[in-house]
């Protein structure tokens, strides 16, 4: 399962990501509210861990923006602001749970597991148009036709199918697919988008990957206009 950690204190963020990794989660850090919003909007995360005091956009505003855009990913707020009014505002902003700092790591993991249990069965596919991205087999499926994907093609497809009609930037795809430390450039994104377009065409999918100049990519159903 993938968890987005939105925390501007780098040492704490690193500690949280290491803790989550030790419990089998895939954690990704971002360090300000604007980046947190962009990443959370991709829809690829199972949980968002969100600090309140963030540069650019605070956690309350970020949560409200996500809920206003119908992003249902559960949110766990972590903050030193432990007053009653702050907890009420956090929950009213859309958080599923509000945990005050400092906290015991056992309590944190218990909160995470409780929130994830409430989400029910894990989603096994992402669907758009007449095509599904089957997550266990890493394949594009339309009816009885399917096309297996490489690891990077799969991560690219997962980002695009989760975002659907929402535009996802090349920079976001670079970080999501290749990682923060990679030397990959935007041309790599273009190449893999090309691979996915061919595989969608090979199964007769009506899903098209549309490029929006200077912004990024989104999915569209052919003839859906």
Automatic annotation (TrEMBL):
GO process annotations (BP): regulation of DNA-templated transcription
GO MF term list: phosphorelay response regulator activity; transcription cis-regulatory region binding
GO cellular component annotations of the record: cytosol; protein-DNA complex
Domain OmpR/PhoB-type: 123-221
Function, in words: May play the central regulatory role in sporulation. It may be an element of the effector pathway responsible for the activation of sporulation genes in response to nutritional stress. Spo0A may act in concert with spo0H (a sigma factor) to control the expression of some genes that are critical to the sporulation process.
PANTHER family to which the protein is assigned, alphabetical: REGULATOR OF RPOS
Positions where 4-aspartylphosphate occurs in the chain: 51
Location of the Response regulatory domain: 2-116
Signal peptide coordinates: none
Membrane-spanning intervals of the chain: none
DNA-binding region(s) in UniProt: 123-221
Keyword annotations from UniProtKB, A to Z: DNA-binding, Phosphoprotein, Transcription, Transcription regulation, Two-component regulatory system
Name of the featured protein: Stage 0 sporulation protein A homolog
């Amino acid at each position: 399962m993938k968890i987005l950690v939105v925390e501007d204190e780098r040492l704490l963020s690193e500690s949280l990501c290491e803790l989550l990794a030790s419990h089998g989660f895939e954690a990704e850090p971002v360090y300000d509210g604007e980046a947190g919003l962009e990443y959370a909007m991709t829809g690829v995360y199972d949980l968002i861990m969100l600090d309140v005091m963030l540069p650019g956009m605070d956690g309350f505003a970020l949560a409200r923006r996500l809920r206003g855009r119908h992003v249902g990913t559960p949110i766990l707020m972590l903050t030193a602001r432990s007053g009653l009014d702050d907890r009420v505002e956090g929950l009213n902003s859309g958080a599923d749970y509000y945990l005050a700092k400092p906290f015991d790591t056992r309590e944190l993991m218990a909160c995470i597991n409780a929130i994830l249990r409430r989400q029910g069965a894990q989603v096994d596919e992402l669907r758009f148009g007449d095509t599904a991205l089957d997550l266990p087999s890493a394949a594009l499926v339309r009816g009885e036709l399917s096309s297996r994907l490489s690891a990077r093609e799969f991560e690219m497809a997962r980002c695009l199918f989760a975002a659907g009609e929402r535009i996802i930037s090349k920079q976001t795809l670079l970080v999501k697919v290749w990682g923060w430390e990679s030397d990959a450039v935007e041309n790599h994104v273009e190449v893999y988008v090309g691979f996915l377009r061919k595989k969608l065409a090979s199964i007769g999918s009506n899903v098209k990957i549309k490029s929006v100049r200077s912004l990024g990519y989104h999915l569209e159903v052919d003839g859906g206009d």
